[in-house]
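Action item from last meeting closed. Structure (280 res):
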């Protein structure tokens, strides 16, 4: 019984916190004047909301109604600036997964080389330390100028931001493989390729998946900002376009969906990492 109570304690506490948050939100915005405390010029922009006699900030019920509408018809297409959230999320996920996959193809083998060779690792370390802290969005102007395609530029930015966590974690995991296992493989005269695949890779896999998990989170975060810059399609563009339409309920719905999809991606890679650790 004690274990059952412990298993239910966290979900019940989460549900209670959610109810309290939604209740506080509902009470906070129920009687708020839409233009109270605003700059006069900004208040003019919000005039449409002010004329309705309601708060400019939507209530949880407003967001829920928007969510119902989005779920019932997520794939409608009424033109460039009016597409369903299913289409917008599909564009964003496609860019993230493509950029993430390309980064994995480059970063994991490179991390193996760096982890297995201290000399190469020391030689490349200055370049990694200089490039790793650069914001991925700083590459967007260069990508737009050279690639001349907003969609491919966004994928390139996802590639850049995904490379470094996977590269560093792979190198760390490979370098941290227990020396005893490598000595046994050397004693048995195991070739370099077989040693990398059957000894080093299984041992470093949990650390590699940790890097992939970090990368996918950063990639999903960056794609929203990138799509706000390049426009066209995607969940980031949807949020920015709804701001131009002064539809705060749609913005909050977009934020909620961004969080839910990000959690799902993180959970998926977390399950993969757990499976690898369990097999080990």
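Sequence:
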């Amino acid at each position: 019984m004690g274990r059952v109570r412990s298993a239910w304690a966290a979900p019940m506490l989460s549900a209670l916190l959610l109810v309290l948050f939604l209740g506080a939100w509902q009470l906070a915005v129920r009687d708020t004047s839409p233009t109270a405390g605003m700059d006069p010029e900004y208040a003019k922009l919000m005039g449409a909301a002010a004329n309705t006699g309601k708060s400019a900030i939507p209530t949880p019920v407003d967001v829920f109604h928007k969510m119902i509408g989005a779920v019932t018809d997520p794939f409608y297409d009424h033109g460039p600036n009016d597409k369903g959230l299913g289409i917008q999320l599909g564009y964003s996920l496609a860019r993230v997964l493509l950029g993430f996959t390309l980064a994995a193809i480059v970063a994991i083998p490179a991390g193996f080389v760096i982890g297995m060779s201290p000399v190469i690792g020391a030689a490349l370390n200055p370049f990694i330390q200089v490039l790793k802290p650069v914001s991925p969005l700083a590459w967007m102007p260069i990508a737009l100028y050279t690639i001349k395609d907003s969609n491919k530029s966004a994928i390139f930015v996802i590639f850049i931001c995904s490379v470094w966590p996977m590269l560093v974690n792979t190198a760390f995991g490979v370098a941290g493989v227990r020396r005893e296992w490598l000595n046994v493989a050397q004693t048995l005269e195991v070739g370099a390729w077989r040693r990398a695949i059957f000894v080093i890779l299984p041992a470093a896999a949990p650390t590699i998946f940790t890097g992939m998990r970090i990368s996918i989170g950063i990639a999903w975060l960056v794609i929203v900002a990138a799509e706000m810059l390049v426009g066209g399609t995607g969940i980031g563009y949807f949020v920015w376009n709804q701001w131009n339409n002064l539809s705060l309920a749609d913005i909050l719905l977009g934020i909620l969906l961004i969080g839910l999809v990000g959690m799902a991606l993180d959970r998926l890679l977390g399950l993969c990492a757990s499976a690898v650790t369990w097999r080990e």
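Note appended to the action item: Residues 48-54 have pLDDT under 50 and may be disordered.
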